[in-house]
Amino acid sequence: MQKNNKENSDTKPLGIVMLVISMLIGLGLLTQLFQNILDKQYNPNQSVQTSHLNHNFIEISLKRNRAGHYVGTGTVNGKIAVFLLDTGATFVAIPEKQAQELGLKKGRKIPLSTANGRSIGYQTNIRSLSLGGIHLYNINAVITPNLEEILLGMSVLKQLEFTQKGNILTIRQQLAI
Fold first, then answer.
1. Residue 103's pLDDT band (boundaries 50, 70, 90)?
2. Which CATH number fits domain 50-174: 3.90.660.10, 1.10.600.10, 2.40.70.10, 2.40.50.140?
3. pLDDT at 41 over 80
């Protein structure tokens, strides 16, 4: 009997450690699962589908997110970027931290007037920008210090056609003929 009690007391701490480790792994997996769900709610267009129309147009469709915005994943200078389409923004506006990650250089200082008030930004140029099969080059942009996400403004959108129907925004790029 004493031998059995000794074996139980030796394995009890190990069992508790294993239980705690299992709980932490389970909590980590649940956190990752819920983060993925939240990411898909914010950006339902993580993989943008492209159609070619009569060899004259490239067309993409974006679903509106739960907040009523159109968000999509694309690239800036070949690096993955998430865009929030904003017809009220004159230029593509890039948060300072993301601009550094994307390798964008600060140019001339310029005054900015935004919904959050006045601030200072820096001109920059994007060599290439893509959203689905739409590709644009030599885009004027602004690096902004007080921004959390990349705004896809009119310096890009004015080069495209877009229509909204229900919760879908269709964007077309006319190809050079």
1. very high
2. 2.40.70.10
3. no
